[in-house]
Amino acid sequence: MSDDHGHHGTIAPFIFSIGAAAMFIGLVMATAGGKDNTGDTGYWFVFFLGLAGLLTGFFMWIQDYWGQDSEEGEDIEVYHDFWGTITTRKFGMWIFLLTEVMVFSTLLSAYLRYRAAVPDYADGEACGELWELCWVPAADIIRSHLIFGVINTFALLLSSLTVVLALYAARNNKPKAATRYLIATFALGTLFLILKAWEWGEMKNGHFWSDHCNVPGTSIADNQDIDHHCIAPKYEDGFWLDTSLEGSTFYITTGTHGAHVFIGLIALGYLIAKANKDGYNEEYHDTIELFGLYWHYVDVVWVFVFPFFYLY
Amino acid sequence: MSLPKDLIFFENPTIWNDFGGDYGGFGGVVWQMFIWSLIVGLLVAVWMIYNLIYFRHADGDPDHKDALKAGVFPHERGNPKIEIAWTIAPLILVSWLTLISLGPLDYMWDVDGQEADITIEVEASQWWWDFGTPICNEEKENPQEWCSTGIYQKPAEFDQCETSKARGCLEIPHGAVIHFRLTSIDVLHAFNFPELGIKQDVVPNLDTLTWLDTKEFNAGHYSIWCAEYCGRDHAIMDADIFITEIA
Amino acid sequence: MNSKSLKILSLGLIMSILLVVSSLPTGDSLPTGIVDDNQVANGCSCHGADPNTGVTINLSNLPERYNSSQTYTLTLNISGGPDALVDGNQGGFFIQANYGTLVSIDNNTWMPEDETHLTHNEEGNNYREWTFNWIAPESDTKVVKFTVYGNSVNGMDGNIGDSWNKGVFSSAGVNAKIEAEEHGELSMPQKLIYAFTVLAVTLSVVVVGNRMVVNDQSFEDVIKSYWKSVYPWLTTTDHKYIGTLYICTGFGFFFIGGILGLLIRWQLFEPRVDGDFLTYEEYNSTFTMHGTTMIFLAAMPIIFGFANYLIPLQIGARDLAFPRLNALSYWLLPTGGFVVYMGYFTGGAGDVGWTGYTPYASGDSSTTPGTDFWVAGQIMLGASSTLTAINFLTTMLRMRAPGVTMMRMPLFSWSIFVTVFLLLLSIPVFTVALILLMADRTFGTLYFDIDAGGDPILWQHLFWYFGHPEVYIVILPAFGVLSEIISTFSRRPIFGYTSMVYAMATIGVISFIVYGHHMFTTGADPLFRFIVMLTTMLVAVPTGIKIFNWLATMTGGSIVLKTPMIFALGTVITFTIGGITGIILASIPVDIALHDGYFVVAHFHYVLVGGTIFAFVGGVYYWYPKMTGKMMNEKLGLLHFALSFIFFNAAFYPMHNVGIEGMPRRYATYDAEFAELNEFITITAFIFGFAQLIFVYNVFYSYKNGEEAGDNPWDGWSLEWATASPPPHNSFTEIPTLKLAEEEDK
User: Fold this and answer.
1) ipTM
2) What's the CATH number where B140 sits?
3) What is the pTM of this model?
4) Annotated catalytic, C717?
5) Residues ≥6 apart with Cβ < 8 Å to C611
6) Which residue of A133, B227, C83, C743 is surrounded by the most CB atoms within 10 Å?
C-alpha cells in the first residue's frame, strides 16, 4: 500500500463503519423493532456495542497524530501556487464547513418556512381552543429566563477568543499558556452545554398554562403572562419536541447545534491531552488552528440560532 | 390492438385536444413536441451515421495533425461560429416550446377566472375516493337549466355504479364546468383522470382544486386513478365517473 | 302357497317396493328453497349426484375489498345447464357468507328461520338470477367467504337433465391482510436472499475444500492464506484499491437492484390480485429498494470508483488529499447498504418509494422498522458521499501536477469536479431531511405530522432540492466518460473543449433551480412553477451543446469502432432520447398529464440506464486494460452491446406508449388494457437482464486470459495512459509534467 506522507493501511475506517452500522441497527430495533414494532429494548446493547466500535475506530485513527510533534513532511507539494497558500488540511476543513453551512441552512429554512406559514398567536387570528392553530414561539417560553441564553452566547463568543489566544500563544512558543487557553475554551464550552441542558429540562417539565390563565372576555395576547407561566394552553404539560411544531423545530435545531458543540469538546479533549503531553509550540500548532476554524463556525451558527429561536 | 400498432401509435385522445390558448392549445403543444423530438432525434442519428460512414479508420490510415499523444494536452479544436449557432438554435427552440405551453397552462390553472356550475368535494383516503353530494352553483350568471332539478347524482342512488364502489362513483352532466375541491384525510394522493389529462395532488392540510369542463369531452364512463403513491392499495384506488347527457 | 314362500314373497315384495321407491327422485323438488342441513352441506345433490361444470355461477357486484358495515347489492346469476321452460321452474340457489349478514330484498328469495343463508322460494325458482343485499361485517380486516350453490333445471318433473354447481367467492376487508399462502411465510425477496446465501456458502465450501485438497493444506492454513489476501483490502487507503472496491461493490449492488427490477417486471407481467406473485406491500418495497439501490448503492459507487481510480492519475497526483478519509467513505458504503437492506430481515423493507414522500413515510402505514432502516442506512451513505466530495475538491484544486492547469484537465476530471460541487451543496440537505424524518419516526417530533400542522410539501422541497442535482451528479460523470472515449476513438481532440467545460458548469448551476419540475402538480405558487419550466427547458441548451460537440468530434476524425466506442455511441443515442422526453416533460401542461406515470419511468430509465450505466459500462471496457493490464474480449463485448442495446430499447421504449395511455407508476397491478404491452416489456426486460451475464463473464474471463494491454492500448492522451498498466504502487515513478501540444509542435 502507498507509503506516502505516512498514510499506511489502517483498519480504523472499517471498524468505524461497522460500529456506525451497529449503532443504527441497534437504535432502530430498540425503538421500532420487536413483535409490535414499538421497540425491542434488548437492542440497546447492540447500540452501545456499535458506539464502542465507533470510538475504537476513532481512537485507532488518531493514534498517528498522537505521536507527532512536528508538521514537517506533512503536506504535499503544490504546483499551482494560488491553491497552495493554505495547508491541505485547512483547505479540507473549509470545505467541510461549507457542507455544515448547508446543514444549518436546511434546519433554519425548514423552521422559517413554518413560521411564515403559521400565523403568530399575537396577531389576533383564530387560534383554536388550545391555540394549536397558531405559532407560539419558544422565545416566549424562554423570555423569563433569557439570562441563560445570554450567558451562553457570551460563553461561546469568549471561547472563540480563547481558542485564538491559544493559537497565538503556541505560535509565540508559549506552550503552557496555549494549554491553559485550550482548557479555558473547554470550560466555557462545557458551561454552554450544562446551561443548555438545564434550560431544556426546565422547558420540558414546565407548566406553561393553568386555569388561572383563562381570563374570559380578553384577547389572546392579553391572556399571556409570561412571568407567571401563562404562555399557551398547548404548553400546559410542558414544552418538548413532541408537543408541537414549535417544539420540534426548537429542539432539533438547537440540539443539532449542541451536538456540534459536544463533538467539538471531544476533539478539544484530545487537543488538551496532546498539549499536556507534548505542548503546542511554534513548530507545531496547526491542529489548534484547524480546531479553531470549526469552533468559530459553531459560534457563528449560534449567532444565527440565538436570535431566531430565543428572541424572535 | 396489435403489438406493433401499440408501439407506433400513442393512444390517448385527450392529448390531441386543442382546447386552451393560441398556437393550437394543448394538442398543439403535444404535436410540436412530437415533431421537434423527431427532428432533433433524426438530426443526431443521421449525423452519427454520416460520421460512421465517412470517417472510419482503416488500417494504415495516417493520423491527423492533431492526433493524441500520451502526456500531451491536445491541440485546441473548435469552431466558435458553429458553436454559437448550435447554442442559439436550441435556445430559440426551447423558448418557443415554453411560449406555446403558456396558453394551455393558463387555461388549466386559471381556476379562479371561471365560475363553476357544480362543485364537488372529494375526499381521498387510504384507499378510496369519497365524493360529496354535488352542489350546483345557483348564483351563476347563467345557471344551467338542470341546476335546480338536481339531476346529477352521487353514488348509491346512481344505478350504473357498481355498489362495491358506492363511495367512489359519481355522475356529472355533460356541458358543465365542474370544480373538484380535493382534501385528504391521511397521506398524499393524486386525483388523476388519465383519459382527460387532469392531475392534481391531494395534500393533507392543504385544499387543492382541479376543474373540468365536460363540454370538451364525450359523454361516457371514465375512471379516476390515484397518481401519488399512497401505500398498499395505491394501484387499486380507483373511482368511476359517468359523464351523462342531460336531455 | 305355504308360509315359507309367502314370507319370501312378502320379503321380496317389500324389497322391491323399497327398491323402486329409493330409485325415484329423492323427495320432492324443493321449490321452496334449501333448508335441509344435508343440502346445505352437499349442495343440490337431489338434482344430480355431482356438481356439473357446465353450470356457471356468477356473483356480481361483490367487491374485492369491502368497507366496514357497508351494504352491497349482489346479483347471483346462473348460466348453463338445460334450457328452461318459459314461466316454469328454472333454477334455485343457496348462498351463505361466513361474515356479515345476507338480506333478502325482494319476493324471490328468503332466509329460513334460524339460518344465515339465503335461498330461493316458489316465486324465485322461476328465474336463474336473484338479487339480494349483503351487509359487510363491522370489522374490515376479515376475509369473507361466500359459498354458493346454483341449480339449473329444465322445469320438468324429476331431476333428469338438471344440473347444479358450487361456487366459492371471497371479499376481503380494506384492512385485511391476505396471507400469502402459496409461498408459506417467506416473502419473495427473503427467499432470494436465502437462496443466494446458500449459493454463496456452498461456493465458499467448494472453493476452500478445493484449496485444501489441491494444496494439501489444513483448513486453518487455507483460511489464513485467504485472510492474508483479504486483510490488505480491509485496510487499504490507496486510491486504486479503494476505487476497485467501489466499482466491484457498485456492480454487485447493480446486480441486486437488477433482480429487484426483474421482480417488478414479473409482477407486472399481467394484472394481479394482492398476493398473486408478490403482495402489494412487497411490491411497494421492491420498487422502493430498486430505486434506492440503483441510485445510491450502484450508480454513485461506480462513479466514485472510477473517480477514485482515475482522478489522481489524470491530474498527476499520487493519491487523494485524505487517503484514510477516502477509506472511511468507502466502508460506509457496504455497511450503510446493509443497514438499508435490514428491512428484509425484519418484516419488510422500506416501502416509501426512493423519494420517501411524507406523510406516508413519516406515518404508521409505512413498513416498520423497514422504513427506519431505509432512512438510517441512507444517513450513513450521505456522510460517505459528503466526505468523498470534500476529499475530491481538495485534491483537484491542490494536487494537480505541473502543467495540469484547470483548463488542461481531461474532461472526465472536469465532470467529477463539477459533480463534487453539486454533492457538497445537495447531499447535506438530504441527510438533514432524513434526520428530520428519522426524528419524526423515532423520537416523536412533528415536522411532517399532519395533525400538528406539518407540511408534506416541506419534504418535497428538501428532497428535490437534493434530488435534482443528484441526477445530474450521476449523469455528468457519464458525460465525462463519453468525452474521453469519443475523443480517443476518433483519434482527435474533443471538439470545443472550452465549451464542454462551460456547458458542464452551467448544467451544474442550473440543476439547483429546476427542482420544482418534480412538483408541478402540488399546487405550488404559479410564478415559481413558471420559472422552473423555463429553466428546465434551458438546461437542454448546454446539454445539446455537448451532444453536438461529441458528434463534431467524430466528424473529420478517424473512428475506431471498438467496444468502448460502440457503447459510447449507443449511449449518445439513448441519452438523446431520454433528454428529449425530459424536454417534453418540462412543459407544464404536458407534465400534468404525464406526471407519476410510465412516461416518466421511461424518461428516467433512458437517461439513467441509457445514459449513466451504458456510459460507465463503456468506461469499464475502456479502462479495464489500464486497471488490470489485460484487454477484454472484443467479440463478447460486441455481443453484450448488441443484446443490451436492442433489448434495453425494446423493454423501455414501450413505456412511453403505456404512460401516454394513462398507466400510472408504482402500481402493483393495472387495468387490463395495458396488459399486452406490459407482457412485451417484461419479456424483453428479462432478456436485457440476462445479457449482462455476458459482461460479467467477460470481466472474469479476461482477467485470466486477456491479451497483454501495454501502457496505452487505445492511444489516449491523458496522464493515466502515460504510466504502466496496471499503474505501479505509487502510480507514477515520478510526478509527470503535462505538456501542451502547441508547445510540442515547436
Assistant:
1) 0.94
2) 2.60.40.420
3) 0.84
4) no
5) C475, C478, C571, C574, C575, C578
6) B227
